[in-house]
Write a structure and sequence with these properties.
Number of helices: 12
Helix content: 40-55%
Number of strands: 12
CATH topology of the largest domain: Aspartate Aminotransferase, domain 2
CATH class of the largest domain: Alpha Beta
Structural class: alpha/beta
Distance between the termini: 52 Å
Largest sheet: 7 strands, mixed
Order of helices and strands: EHHEHEHEHEHEEEHHHHEHEEEH
Strand content: 5-15%
Bound molecules: pyridoxal-5'-phosphate
Amino acid sequence: MSMAVTFDGAPEQGTINFSVGQPSADLLPLALLRGASERFFASAQPLELNYGERQGDPRFRAALAAFLSEKGGSPGSTQSLMLTAGISQALDFVCSRFTRPGDTVFVEEPSYPYSFQIFRDHGLKIVDIPLDGNGMDMEQCERKLAEHRPKLLYTIPAYNNPTGQTLSRERRERLVALSRKHGFIIAADEVYQLLHHGTPPPASFGTMAGHGNVLSLGSFSKILAPGLRLGWIQTNAELMGILTASGVLVSGGNFNHFTSHVVRQLIENGELAPFVAHLRSSYAARAEAMDTALHTHLDGIATWQKPQGGYFFWLKLPADTDAEGLQAAARATGTGFLSGTACSTAGGLKNHLRLSFAHYKVPDIHDGIGRLGRALRAAQGKAFA
Ligand SMILES: Cc1ncc(COP(=O)(O)O)c(C=O)c1O
């Protein structure tokens, strides 16, 4: 008997729940990975199943460096890259290598909710820096640097989760200069860097790894499949030395050696770039559909900016609205969203909500936003009174 595949946060049957920030089944590349696995096993040598190098298989890193130079505007060298088990694991690892409980981390407000939990796991004090529509507000950042001495600054510079905002090249350079001046490390979560819907974002922080205390964190979760648990860190020799001196790596080798063999087949075979191009156009069409549907069903109720990449719309409701209080109404019409407060370290942003367009095809997006519109209009009398 085959059982239905499930996952944490899966939508209830029959609902169209826009809180799910994971790809839909049709965008998960089963056939590509099957082919890559078969090619790997057809030519593999037994020693490939040993631990391998701490930094990750050098052939993989060479293939990734070439891919990033071409596609990500990030001329990485094999030595500047280490493999990870994805950005979540990399963030945890970075905290363990560079921080001690009681240290301070700067994060954007709003930001990726699960990152907060990782920072709290390490006993870090979180200080938030607001976004101003163009990414991190640099004036505020400098003001807070006068008051705090952070060890880490966590940013999602391209298509921030949840707002979709992107940091300009000028601000990136300013941030790198500040990292040198104040001695903190930039942990740039570039998970959506390659998922632009039109014009690409500024070059990744990986391109500036030689200019300051920069860790550029990348992942295959959004450009291939989250279940692979494979990602990378791009950085300079000094920070790489601290990362690779970790006891976990000395003992166990790199975090996800075997998967990297399979994914390398796919990169070397030239299959990754067209797949990412396919994802870009699929997500661009979904974002377009969501924007259109929102105009049809939520004009006058919410305001938003259409994102230029990534997975999310960030909606603003009237100031006195508590989005969390609208969840029940949304559930009643068979839809859902992530409340803005989840994306705030201090429990703010109550009148915001995040919608992901990654998990549904265009017709479902129209249907789901229609349901959301009905829910919010039904609640409007009470909630917006
Ligand atoms: C901003 C951000 N960072 C990290 C992750 C998770 O990355 P990974 O699957 O590589 O751990 C996500 C997934 O939603 C994300 O949105």
